[in-house]
Design goal:
This protein is α/β, with parallel strands linked by helices. The chain contains 15 helices and 27 strands. 30% of the residues lie in helices and 25% in strands.
């Protein structure tokens, strides 16, 4: 049987045409699966009229909303490849991704007009984009999304992309400072849906609150899975802890995913006890280990927190803890998903005895095809059918996995992955800096925040000089919260910064 993700929406619209598909809380709009599919078809046919064909890369730079979901499915129906873009990035960072991916069409929401105009003014040096499509009032060089959509046919497009054809390229921060594009196909996405369905326990008729930005696999994969199982997606434009509780009550939310920082903000809302949240069966939490104290705090207000572990490279799923184990094994991220194999191995790839700490490797048909135009990185990460995650964990005698350490030197701030090399490369471009290492410091607000440890090349360099140099060159969430100076960065014989020593020397907490 052929697998085409655009047809997943068409099939659901055929089976449950009148079932509510999307509630867009910011736009105060609702649509059924029949309406969502018709809108996706119109957008697909409009994209085709602008030259989108099999393999064309189409970027989306937009806040969460119904247009994001329908555009994702429309790109698939038109045979294109979606490139979700992190709207927290600055123009130079977006330019690299757009050029690296070969994106030629961009759908953007009007609030990003300034950064889109900046990209447009770069010309061929900045992007290869020929068609700009605005959700909302367009810039002079752009088409208007709703006008294009309204003029297009809602007839189902012919299936031209399927199976092992590329579906989306999602960029992750790179250890060398350059992001890598993770390639997922129609098949890998379908297998992600198939493997999530028996374990996540999202049911037909559920009402799932999509809080994370849809440029994250932690939001995009659940959004697509809701179509697969026949559940309603309630979309938040942006996270607001007070509003979240109100939406839970008003929309009778049954389940959702929130990173630990979000859960912490929500728990601190003083009016949460005034809200009826009895509809919630569970909340998934991932992106960083969930503190046991936070799981227990939510348990005390009768909300189950289920820790989940996954990566962009796995199209979402790797490990999850199911309902009956959530409290007993609090702190564990559970066992491998239904169609997923997980092992803990040593440096030679040999499986370790239970309870020993080693690298997590994952196998399943939902694993990425590879990194876009990065054969060396692909060969380093994919070996004999296994994805080497770089994350350190242990597995107990029952198969429960507990993550022990971060992936290499990655910083996780508010659920966003930040690789220090990106920040280090920017700081090293300052003439007053001789050397630098960026570490994560604990933050009550974000979990972790970047902190720069700098060796001066100029005696008059100040910490504010370092921070000011980063401003405008990095997304706000990557900006170091502080800087300190040191005579020499400790390094091992191969030249790698010994960041564990630096974390001991500069324990924080991070400045807010």
């Amino acid at each position: 049987m052929e697998v085409s993700l655009g047809q997943v929406l068409a099939k659901r619209a055929h089976l449950n045409p009148d079932l509510e598909a999307i509630v867009d809380t910011a736009a105060n709009s609702r649509c059924t699966f029949a309406e969502l599919n018709a809108r996706a078809n119109q957008t697909a046919n409009a994209l085709a009229s602008l030259g989108v064909e099999k393999g064309t890369r189409v970027g989306i730079l937009a806040m969460n909303g119904v247009e994001y979901v329908e555009s994702f499915f429309a790109i698939a129906k038109a045979g294109g490849v979606c490139v979700p873009l992190n709207w927290r990035l600055v123009a130079s960072e977006l330019s690299f991704i757009l050029k690296d991916s070969g994106t030629t069409h961009l759908i953007y929401s009007a609030e990003f007009e300034n950064i889109v105009t900046e990209l447009h003014e770069m010309g061929a040096d900045g992007t290869q984009i020929s068609e700009w499509i605005a959700i909302g009032e367009p810039a002079p060089f752009a088409h208007r999304y709703d006008t294009l959509q309204s003029k297009a046919s809602d007839a189902e497009p012919e299936v031209i992309a399927k199976d092992d054809d590329h579906l989306f390229i999602m960029y992750t921060s790179g250890t060398t400072g350059l992001p890598k594009g993770v390639i997922q196909t129609h098949n890998t996405m379908m297998w992600a849906l198939i493997t999530m369905a028996p374990c996540i326990e999202t049911r037909a008729g559920d009402r799932y609150y999509l809080l994370l930005p849809l440029f994250h696999v932690g939001a995009l994969a659940p959004a697509v899975s809701l179509v697969y199982v026949g559940a309603t997606g309630v979309i938040a434009r942006a996270f607001d802890p007070v509003e979240t509780w109100k939406i839970i009550e008003r929309e009778r939310i049954t389940n959702m995913l929130a990173v630990p920082a979000m859960l912490n903000f929500m728990y601190q809302v003083p009016t949460r006890n005034e809200v009826d949240y009895s509809s919630i069966r569970w909340i998934l939490s991932g992106a960083a280990p969930v503190p046991k104290s936070l799981i227990e705090a939510y348990r005390d207000i009768d909300i189950e927190i289920h820790q989940v572990y996954g990566l962009t490279e796995t199209c979402g799923p790797a490990c999850v803890i199911v309902a009956e184990d959530a409290v007993k094994y609090a702190g564990s991220t559970g066992k491998g998903f239904f169609h997923t194999d997980v092992k803990i191995v040593d440096d030679k790839g040999i499986e370790l005895p239970r309870a020993e700490i080693g690298e997590v490797i994952v196998r399943g048909r939902h694993i990425m095809e590879g990194y876009w135009n990065r054969p060396d990185a692909t060969a380093e990460t994919l070996k004999d059918g296994w994805l080497y995650t770089g994350d350190l964990a242990s597995m107990d005698e029952h198969g429960f996995v507990t993550i022990q350490d971060r992936k290499k030197d990655m910083i996780i701030s508010g659920g966003e992955n930040i690789y220090p090399a990106e920040i280090e490369n920017v700081i090293l471009s300052h003439p007053g800096v001789k050397d630098v290492a960026v570490i994560g410091q604990p933050s009550d607000k974000w979990g972790e925040s970047p902190f720069a440890v700098v060796v001066k090349a100029s005696d008059d360099l100040t910490d504010m000089d370092v921070l000011k140099h980063c401003d405008g060159k990095l997304g706000k969430f990557k900006m170091p919260k502080g800087a300190a100076f040191i005579e020499e960065i400790p390094r091992n014989p191969s030249g790698k910064a010994l960041k564990r020593i630096l974390r001991d020397q500069f324990p924080g907490p991070a400045p807010d």
